[in-house]
Amino acid sequence: MPLLLETDAQGMPVSLLGHLPKSTLAASVLTEQPEIVCLFLGPNAYISPDWVSKPDWAPTWNFVSLKISGQLVLDEALTDEAIRSLVAHMNGLTGANWDIAAMGERYTSLLKGITGFRIRISSVLPRFKVGQDENSVTYSEIYDALTGHALQDWMR
Asked: Can you tell me which residues the record assigns to a coiled coil (predicted)?
């Protein structure tokens, strides 16, 4: 589910903005139990023993992840803002200039089945397993094997 990060004046995360269908079980559960954990998986890859020169080295999985905890508040008044903000963000990433107005009355109709929400962030916990515990030779071998993979950028 796409979520937009909202930050304070110093760039610190304060909330996540999103929307979901009213008809989902999640919408009814979150009304009663608003505490939520969002898990984000970044670049990740299987790391093969074939890549390293240590004969007894075991395969593993390296990854970058983020755990955000908070309280979700469903708010129909946020629905239009959440959708418009997401469209503007995605248009910016892709270079598109599509406008919701092109949908005409269909947009108003679709809004009836969607509700916006904001998650007030209480904690942010990043986790990085990118070979940082390996010796320098093994680390370099893994790094070289990941040429062109996004995970390599996190190993720099």
From this structure: none
* pLDDT per residue as tens digits for the range 26-54: 988 998 999 999 999 999 999 999 999 99
Q: What is the CATH number of the domain that holds 86?
A: 2.30.110.10
**DSSP designation for 153:** H
Q: Structural domain of residue 87, as residue ranges?
A: 4-154
Q: What is the 3-state secondary structure (H, E, C) of 37-93?
A: EEEEEEEEEEECHHHCCCCCCCCEEEEEEEEEEEEEEECHHHHHHHHHHHHHHHHHH
Total domains present in the chain = 1
What number is the average pLDDT over the span 61-71?
98
